[in-house]
Specification:
Elements: H1 5-17, H2 22-31, H3 37-46, H4 51-75, H5 88-115
Helix pairs in contact: 2-4, 2-5
Length: about 120
């Protein structure tokens, strides 16, 4: 916060606007490789992410990539090329899991629009 106070306040406001959906966003961020986990770990307290959201999002969001890495580790001794680990199927499953994490947000928005 010392170096970019305006930007941090903007991010805090953005998080506050999406507070009701932030668990799903946290799960999405943990599943996808867009932001490194160390960055999420460091910035979450500075951006006032609730501890419960951080904990549950981390717990649920780290499992799918872990399955991906475990699968890669199990097959590493059987492979003849790196392409056998990172198949389109495993990437598709990982991305599908990430997209499923955002479905509750989309459904809630649609329902909110329908009833307003």
């Amino acid at each position: 916060m010392k170096y970019f106070p305006e930007r941090v306040r903007g991010w805090q406001a953005h998080i506050e606007r999406h507070r009701e959906h932030f668990l799903w966003y946290m799960i999405f961020l943990r599943i996808t490789p867009f932001l490194p986990n160390w960055f999420i770990n460091i910035t979450s307290p500075m951006l006032n992410v609730p501890l419960t959201t951080f904990f549950v999002g981390t717990f649920v969001g780290v499992a799918p990539p872990s399955v991906f890495y475990i699968n890669a580790g199990r097959t590493i001794n059987k492979i003849s090329s790196q392409g056998e680990i990172f198949t389109y199927k495993t990437w598709a499953i990982l991305m599908l899991t990430a997209c499923i994490a955002l479905l509750p947000v989309l459904f809630k928005r649609k329902l909110k629009q329908r009833f307003e």
